[in-house]
């Protein structure tokens, strides 16, 4: 008799737990990322033919990083402007409980065919899409090193 009572109690407990799980559902669905393309404008004021590479990632307020595809060696002819599109940049994350905005970090390297000139990484942090898509990145030479400045 005692054994039947214990089995019945365990069965009732399992039934209650199952009902609670069924009612509350699964609250932690995987995150969905909103991605957009960023078009960045570059102007070569260096007097030398150069190439731009862009690497980077998006990040949230607790520093979760999501890399976006690299832009490999794109030529910027002397004295000209060129738009470079960075594809699939994460701008927000949506879960069942919240929408989290993401910032972007762009690492830009300018290089030359000539061994006389060197490049270095330039870092730009963006708090919004329009921060770097409405102005121009100016490429200049300081001595033998390429420099990148941004003006809006």
Instruction: Indicate the multimeric state.
Output: single chain
Please identify the structural class as seen in this structure. alpha+beta
How many domains? The number is: 1
Measured by DSSP, the beta-strand proportion falls in: over 45%
**Rg on CA atoms, Å:** 26 Å
**Inertia-based shape:** rod-shaped
Count the DSSP helices: 2
Helical amount: 10-25%
Total beta-strand segments = 10
Strand order of the largest sheet: 6-5-1-9-10
The CATH C-level class name? Mainly Beta
Span of the ends, CA to CA: 83 Å
Using the 3D structure, state the CATH architecture. Answer: Sandwich
Q: Are there runs of 5+ residues with pLDDT below 50, and where?
A: none
Task: Return the CATH topology.
Answer: Immunoglobulin-like
Mean pLDDT: 90
Helix-strand string: HEEEEEEEEHEE
Top keywords for this entry?
single chain, 152 residues, alpha+beta, Immunoglobulin-like, five-stranded mixed β-sheet, 2 helices, 10 strands, rod-shaped
What does the secondary structure layout of this molecule look like, with pairings?
Layout: H1 2-24, E1 32-44, E2 50-59, E3 65-67, E4 71-76, E5 81-94, E6 99-101, E7 103-111, E8 121-126, H2 130-133, E9 136-142, E10 145-151
Parallel strand pairs: 1-9
Antiparallel strand pairs: 1-5, 2-3, 2-4, 2-7, 5-6, 7-8, 9-10
